[in-house]
Design brief:
CATH architecture of the largest domain: Orthogonal Bundle
Mean pLDDT: 89
Shape: elongated
Distance between the termini: 44 Å
Largest sheet: 4 strands, antiparallel
Low-confidence stretches: none
Structural class: alpha+beta
CATH class of the largest domain: Mainly Alpha
Number of strands: 6
Order of helices and strands: HEEHEEHEEHH
């Protein structure tokens, strides 16, 4: 494959990885420390991820246990959890914070499934934008012969189709996981 096609493929793979990391934050009814990966705490004036100032463990399938490294950070963590859109109520146990993950009802499962589809569409749009950038790059470069240019464009389209198919498969898998009772 041409270097331009490989570069496009690498950028598309980064979009897929970003999509996967976004999907991890969606609740599936089971406790997962990655649910809190986007939760930012005001740590001495700068936003810091909660997993950098505390340890997060899963003692039971529907429970998260947050143990701050410094007891003074308890209030900031509690405030951030309450302000987030996670829909979880933290329980302050003195030195730890317990999060009970409630089972998802059918309506919430459908909403999360729609959210996963939305994230999938955003990932596909990002992949298509990468394709457009590289197609424009190849078409604007007059140093390539016409038949070689067409081959590169075909290769870019194949890589794009494969990447979009991969995004669809990941999205479908996540929807199944969310809808599983």
């Amino acid at each position: 494959m041409d270097e331009i096609v490989l570069d496009a493929q690498q950028r598309m793979e980064k979009s897929v990885e970003s999509f996967k990391s976004t999907l991890v934050t969606l609740r599936t009814g089971r406790a997962n420390p990655a649910m809190l990966s986007t939760l930012m705490i005001d740590y001495y004036g700068s936003p810091t991820p909660v997993n950098q100032i505390s340890s997060i463990s899963v003692p039971e399938p529907r429970q998260l246990l947050i143990k701050p490294y410094d007891r003074n950070d308890m209030k900031a963590i509690l405030t951030a959890i309450n302000a987030s859109n996670l829909g979880l109520n933290p329980i302050n146990e003195g030195t730890t914070i317990r999060l009970m993950i409630p089972p998802l009802n059918e309506e919430r499962r459908r909403d999360l499934s729609k959210q996963a589809k939305k994230y999938g569409e955003e990932a596909k749009i990002a992949v298509r934008n990468i394709r457009r950038d590289y197609v424009d790059l190849v078409k604007s470069d007059d140093t390539y012969p016409e038949d070689y240019q067409r081959k590169i464009l075909d290769d870019i389209q194949k890589v794009t189709d494969e990447t979009i198919q991969k995004v669809d498969e990941i999205c479908l898998e996540k929807e199944k996981e969310i809808m599983m009772v």
